[in-house]
Amino acid sequence: MAPVDAWFNRLYTWKHNPLYQSGTIAVAMLAIMLVTGLYLVIFYRIGTPYESVVRISEQAWAGRWMRSLHRYAADVAVVAIAVHALRMFAQGRSWGPRTLAWVSGLFLLFLMYVCGWTGYVMVWDVQAQIMAVEGARVLDALPLFSAPIGRAFVGESPLPRAFFFLNLFLHIAVPIGVALALWMHVSRLARPALLPPKGLLWGSTGVLLALSLLWPAPLDAPADLLALPSRVSVDWFYGFWLPFSRSIPPWAAWAAILALGGIVMLAPVWTRPRESERVPKSFVKERFCTECDQCTQDCPYDAIRMIPRSDGRPGRVANVNPALCVSCGICAGSCAPMGVGPPLRTGRDQLDRVGTFIAEHTWGPRDVILVSCDHAASPAATGTALEGIPAFPVPCAGNLHSSVVEYLVRSGAGGVLVVACPPRDCWSREGPRWLTERLFHERPAELKERVDGRRVRVVHAAEAEVGRLVEAVDAFRGRVLAMDIAAAETDIAVDLECEIPADEVEV
Ligand code: HEM
Ligand code: SF4
Ligand code: SF4
């Protein structure tokens, strides 16, 4: 995955990399399908399905490209969903509080296929016939219907209008289910990103539109239940299962569906790390909490809320709901008094760690230090290119507390370069976004004004973009040298907001 990401970043830039936007592209395609579908349904006739689709395809001004756009958007949607699901899986985002998103995502995929299947059958050409006959053959293996539905397709009598009515009804009703499932899918996320950035949205719509105009979707010969279908242009995005299922008995098809479906559905169980390997959930040190509300605003999973204090003092205190917390540590970076975060990842833990890090290294005003996110390009992967440059690791760039950066700068380093993932690919959703806001735009816990902002930089480099990282370090080093920083600061005591009285400091 990493080399492909890097290649796409070169092609599209990370801001518009479609791989990072697969979920939002799927939503955009659903929107295109909705608009074009509303147009098509005006002209579709259940009494003469095939003929009505022919008429639509003959409308050179609108129908032809509307129909094609509807179909191409449906194809892109399934590819986008597959990429999106694979990425979630590869990034380990398939268990714990994400289980609801995982299971509802699979339900969404299933609904997309039901919608696609009914859509293709609506056309009632040869492809539709094959899909309908094969679907009926597989469905008849279940004791669902009083009479086998496959009988309707033997050609003894014309298909009843009710069949096409039911098909159309499902094709319109299922998208309502898709909308509900999508709402549930993102219900546990704060600020879900639903649409791709404008450039990618309009760019992909434009490309599909051009494709629809230049290369309209094919239409096969009309279905004929008494003839053996000859040439068929199967849409592989929705019909890939046909060759498999036609070559095996229906019970085997069901066994395969259940086995595969069961394995994927149970991913939240088998991908969950062992208890001992899981990062514990975030917690709040009540007496440090100043009720500022910042962590509730920054948590990408809406896992924190303010509740009345329980320590006898007036006011409210932040409280983490462990059922929603994914242990990303982003709240630790948002808390100026360092009162919240997963164990060993709070601001105070980071300061402890960075204190040891500083003690173990020596650097001067001409040196650059790296702070690197575990999922971004690793300085160790650059071979000898960055040899000798100290790198302080953090599990997510959004977990980094700005005081750590201040500490490093004030310890005499020329500059600090934070290596973060491309924002839309953050494993914790919003890490790089809040990092930038905190370092450069005064979002609490902000980097204090006393730190020379020119000596701090962020580079977005994905795992395989080690070259980009090396270039960024070289460029930053050049800038730091040009700044001619006079002398190392020796006073590296960092002000902690709401410093705890000495008698309260834990030992
Ligand atoms: C129509 C199909 C789908 C659409 C439109 C869709 C769209 C989205 C969107 C827009 C997000 C929010 C992204 C963000 O703001 O960070 C999301 C999150 C998510 N999706 Fe999907 N998705 C679909 C199917 C799937 C499937 C099939 C799976 C996996 C089986 C899946 C797994 C997830 C997970 C686990 C998250 C939450 C990520 C996290 O908590 O960090 N989705 N999806
Ligand atoms: S950011 Fe810190 S001080 Fe502010 S509400 Fe959250 S825990 Fe309390
Ligand atoms: S670690 Fe903090 S920011 Fe991340 S989900 Fe848990 S409470 Fe929210």
Overview of this protein structure:
With 507 residues, the chain is α/β, with parallel strands linked by helices. The model is unreliable at 500-507 (pLDDT under 50). Helix 4 runs antiparallel to helix 5 (99-123) and helix 5 (99-123) packs antiparallel against helix 7. The two termini are 45 Å apart. The strands form three sheets. A four-stranded parallel β-sheet has the order 6-5-7-8, sandwiched between helices. A two-stranded antiparallel sheet has the order 1-4. The chain has 18 helices and eight strands. It folds into two domains: 2-270, Cytochrome Bc1 Complex, Chain C; 295-483, no CATH class. The chain binds protoporphyrin IX containing FE and iron/sulfur cluster (SF4) (2 copies).
Summarize the structure.
With about 500 residues, the protein is α/β, with parallel strands linked by helices. It has helices at about 1-10, 20-45, 50-60, 65-90, 100-125, 125-140, 160-185, 200-215, 235-240, 240-245, 250-265, 265-270, 295-300, 330-335, 345-360, 400-410, 430-440, 465-485, and strands at about 285, 305-310, 315-320, 340, 370-375, 390-395, 415-420, 455-460.
Characterize the main sheet.
Answer: 4 strands, parallel
Percent helix: 40-55%
Total number of strands: 8
How much strand content do the residues show?
5-15%
Short descriptors:
507 residues; alpha/beta; Cytochrome Bc1 Complex, Chain C; 2 domains; four-stranded parallel sheet; two-stranded antiparallel sheet; 18 helices; elongated; binds protoporphyrin IX containing FE; binds iron/sulfur cluster
